[in-house]
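Deadline looming. Please check this record:
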Amino acid sequence: MRHVLHAVVLTFLCADVLVAQSLKDEFQQLQREYASSTEAWQVKYDGVKTEDGSIARYREWPGWSFASKFTSFAEDAGSSQEGFDALLEVLKMGNSVGEFDQDLFDDYERAIELILEKHREKKLRNLCAQVRVSKQSENFLRTLMVEGDSNELRAEACFFLGRLLSQKRDMCLPNSWAKRPGVGAFGEYSDSRVRANLDRFLANQDIEQLQSEAIRCFELVTSDYPDVPTARGDEKLSDRARREIYELRHLAIGVTAPDIVGADVNGKPMRLSDHRGKVVLLVFWASWCGPCIGDIPHEKELYAKFVDRPFVIVGVNADDTLKSAQLSVSENAIPWRSFWNGPDGIDGPITTNWNVRAWPTVYVLDPEGTIRFKHLRREELGEPLEQLVTETETNVSKQR
C-alpha cells in the first residue's frame, strides 16, 4: 500500500512539474514572438521622420496586438510566476505608449485587476510606483492601502495613491495636456486614439476634492508610517510625503507661485515677482545637466520669437560655483538672467523651496504669477506660450 501511495504522489508531482514547464515554455515563446515582431517593426520604421510615417509607425506597433495575447495567457496561467510576468509586460506597454489608447486600455485595466485577483502573494510594493493614472490603478492602490500585508506596502500604496490623485487633479484643469487636442497630423491621430477613454476617466471630477484627498493620503503617510523607508531605502517615505503636501499647496497648477528673491549669476539682485505683467518661463537648470543644455537652443528660439512681447525667461542655476555657472552662460550665449542657487548646488534654498527633483524642471507662470503649466519642454511649449502671451496682450489692450 505504501508503494501505491508513493507512486500516486510522484504522479501528481510530475504532473505539476510538467504543467509548470509547459507554462514556462509557452511564456518564453510568447516573449520571443513579441521581441521578434518589435525588432522587425523597428527596422521597418528606422529613420522615419514624416508625420505620415510616424502615424504608420504608431499604428503598426506590435504591442497593440500582443497586449491581449499576454493578458489571455495570464488569464489561463493562474497564480504562476509566468502569469504575473505576463501582466507586467502589459503594464510596461502602458508605461511606454500611454494606458488610454483604444487598443491597449482594456488589457491594461484587466492586467491590474488580475494582479489583485491572482497575485496578492507576490511582492507588489514596486508596482505601486509603476501603475499609471487610471480607474483600475486607483482601485489597486486603494485596495493595497487597506489590505496590504505589511506596513511598507500599505504606506507605499497610500503615498502613490496621493500621487495619482494629484496627477488626476492636474489632468482635470482646463489648460492641462489632457484637455488639449493634439497638434499636427500625428498629434491629432494619437489624440483620437486616447480621447474617448481619457474624457470618460476625467468626467465629473471635483478638482478641489481631488487635491484634498491627495493631501489626506500624504498626511496619512506622515502620521501612520513615519519611519517607513522608501523602496530604495534612501530616505523616509514620510519626508517625501511632506514635500508632496507642500507642492500641492504651493506649487500646483492654478496656485500663485512662491516668490524668488536672490541674486543672479553675476551677483546682481533680482526677484521673480519683478516680472508680474508678463508670461514667465521659469527654468531650473545646471551646466552638468545634459538635457538642460540640450534645451537651450529651443529656449533661445522662444526668446527670439517673443522678444518684443510680454514674455520673459528666468533661469535658476544649480551649479555649486559661480564660476561654472558664469562659464556656462557665456559658452551657451544665454541672453536671459538666472538666479544662482548658492554653493550647495541642487540642495540650495531656491530648489529646496520649489521641491525640484528633476533636471530640467520647467514652469510657466501667467502675468499674475499663477502657475499655468508644469514640466513642458521644447516643442511642447510653443502653443501654450503663444496662447498665454496673446491673452496677456489682449487683456492689456482692453485696459487701455
User: Anything to note?
Assistant: The beta strands are 261-263, 269-271, 279-285, 311-317, 338-340, 361-365, 371-374. The chain has a mean pLDDT of 90.
